[in-house]
């Protein structure tokens, strides 16, 4: 990794180190005092005794440049720290909380950024005097808006990543999520910006000194030296050249180091929906329903989005029940509402979503719980495994820290016990050498191993229901089967229920007991998995089955694609949403939406498939 930094980085870092060291050790170095007039002619050119020559008053320029570095670097460090201390918390708040906090902070920030820097500097110096402390305050305050922008941007991009959602799913509090998940990631761009900020401040201090608004004579500053030397440009150019070149090289070095660090740590952003705790508002009164004696019951779950194009019913009245020791598969094409259904159940929806219906966990209505009350359920009772284990794990924290987290938060285990338990969990999901894996980072593991880690995290507190949202989609085919087999084994061992979400029927066919098929946010078929797969009643289920490869397909069997595209949820067709793509559709299908009828098998179709039709279709 260090080799990737290149020679430019090392040269720059070396130069910064040299200047820093010289500034720190100026008093003990064999240098003349910066204000001492030496014997000999003034404006003397460079010599062995005075490598940078002497100035108009016969003072050693090297000494003055070295002492000047103290002011320039001191102001740089002070102003950057001040900007960071004020700007970073504001940026974190704006990026994480968004809404009102974001609007207010960014509005004030924009006004601050628009305020003329020089007027501000002049005002402060006029009232408070030109000294080191005031220059640091001026430049630190002027840097705050840039820090706010940078930290807000980094927070925004990380707060919507899956590992933050994963922490939420485990019931972590906002402050903890910010500190453990967001801050380490924001620290990466912030540290590289600190170097660039140093360069900006050094130049700014130089400009202020040039205008006489910085630390006053006789204390030398680089800007002040350039100002003094400019009158000697023709007779003794070395007086102005020496501080200019040192300042130029230092600014260039800080920029280069900052830039190389940024390039090295640049993690490609992955765009994801912003996910926040839903502000649940029930759009319409649900029909009365009985609370059943089962582990998980979803009743008329609805997730709607009010968009500029109209109301999008991403989930529209989904109901099901699930018992311990059983697996429910939720299948459907991309965009059919599977993920939104799971997020509705977990109470983790984008802020723009409106949720309706009820979800009962052992008879306890989860939708009646506040976000704070939901935290006690997320993790201990409801576990979640996400599609892409790379984005579900925090790249800058070790596996050990991440698997221990739910154990420490929910089970209040000490660091040591949590690590021992984490190792045991890793072993239980089939990870060889758990002790070593605990010390590793996500990128050091294969995709299959990473998914095992996220499963271990989801299982840490012994949940009653495990939600697996497309857990194998990001893995290659040979690993897919291993992960599903593992989920099945864990379900048996822990006697929990599993909700398995997939767009691929062939993946879930073997492992599911019950299945619900979703299309355009609604359940179009529901029933025992074996029956639904063997004898689908709804043409959409049949089409999905025909589009999925099967082991008993004859060689060179052509898979049938489903013609057309899923409907635009902002403007769904008036009748059955699948009608425009259905080979069996008749007039009534386009005009009237079929209800979900339940005659032992539930399906939403005016003309359900009979066994003869199925054998012709296949
Ligand atoms: N923030 C949002 N604003 C408006 N509509 C949204 C938003 N998020 C999701 N949707 C709508 O919800 C629908 C269902 O999305 P969801 O992610 O649940 O689908 P999915 O079946 O899980 O698909 P995939 O397998 O691709 O994740 C999408 O088609 C989209 O129209």
TrEMBL record:
Keywords: ATP-binding, Cell membrane, Membrane, Nucleotide-binding, Transmembrane, Transmembrane helix, Transport
Domain ABC transporter: 296-545
InterPro entries, A to Z: AAA+_ATPase, ABC_Ni/Peptide_Import, ABC_transporter-like_ATP-bd, ABC_transporter-like_CS, MetI-like, MetI-like_sf, Oligopep_ABC_C, P-loop_NTPase
CDD domains in UniProt: ABC_NikE_OppD_transporters (cd03257), TM_PBP2 (cd06261)
Record protein name field: Dipeptide/oligopeptide/nickel ABC transporter permease/ATP-binding protein
Origin species: Actinomadura luzonensis
Family listed: Belongs to the ABC transporter superfamily. Belongs to the binding-protein-dependent transport system permease family.
Domain ABC transmembrane type-1: 69-258
Gene3D superfamilies reported in the protein's UniProt record: MetI-like, P-loop containing nucleotide triphosphate hydrolases
Pfam families the UniProt entry points to: ABC_tran (PF00005), BPD_transp_1 (PF00528), oligo_HPY (PF08352)
Transmembrane segments: 71-96, 103-128, 193-215, 235-258
Membrane topology: Multi-pass membrane protein; Peripheral membrane protein
Subcellular location: Cell membrane; Membrane
Cited PROSITE patterns: ABC_TM1, ABC_TRANSPORTER_1, ABC_TRANSPORTER_2
